[in-house]
Amino acid sequence: MSDIGAETWIMHGTLLGWWWNQKAREVILPWDSDLDVQVNEPTMHYLAKYYNMTEFHYRLPGITNGRTYLLEVNPHYQNSSVEDWLNVIDARWIDTETGLFIDVSTVRKNWTAIEDGEEGALMVKDKHHYRDQERDIFPLRDSYFEGIHVKIPYEYTWLLEEEYGKKALTVTMFEHHKFNINSKLWEPVR
Questions:
Q1: pTM
Q2: CA–CA gap between residue 157 and residue 76 (Å, rounded)
């Protein structure tokens, strides 16, 4: 999304996949069915105003003609309530050939936590919360995922442990897969 002036970073299962495979081919976890990215609130407003329902052609390594993605912004993206569980995803980039998608969630100020004295607290409609934007997310770090340049949150280890627990970064058996420390890939258990 940097091509259209939108700062984004990988999160959730996508960030966990990056964690496990960052020293190898940086592949998506085999049991994950989508990619997850986040943007800040001004960026989501920008995407909604200028790019909603537009197609973007992206050249990808190893794919001769690249892929075309449609950006669909949820009409409820401005609703920041965590009670509206049907609308926790604010936008999606949808691959027009395969239907696979990239979920886009908005990180916004957590006014309840700020009123309770937690300066800089942030939240997402899916009930994820962040202590301090200057410590947890920013400054973003540069990295690669699936051979593509991406941004990752500054405190990625803390964020992954907070979301998935410490064992998610050490347990090498999950969802009928075992992590091969030599190939750096999750392989099916037979």
A1: 0.91
A2: 31
**What single DSSP character describes residue 56?**
E
Q: Which two tokens stand for residue 75?
A: 């009409």
Residue 73 — φ and ψ, nearest 5°? Answer: -95, 130
- What type of residue is 48? A
Model confidence over 50-92: pLDDT tens digits? 999 999 998 877 788 999 999 999 999 999 888 888 889 999 9
Positions of E strands within 30-100: 35-40, 54-60, 63-73, 91-95
Q: What is the spatial distance between Cα 80 and Cα 123, in angstroms, rounded to a whole number?
A: 9
Q: Express each pLDDT in 87-109 by its tens digit.
A: 899 999 999 999 999 999 999 99
**Mean per-residue pLDDT for 10-30?**
82
Query: Which strands form 177-180's sheet, in the order they lie side by side?
Result: 173-174, 177-180, 185-188
Nearest to 37 by CA among 76, 78, 93, 77: 93
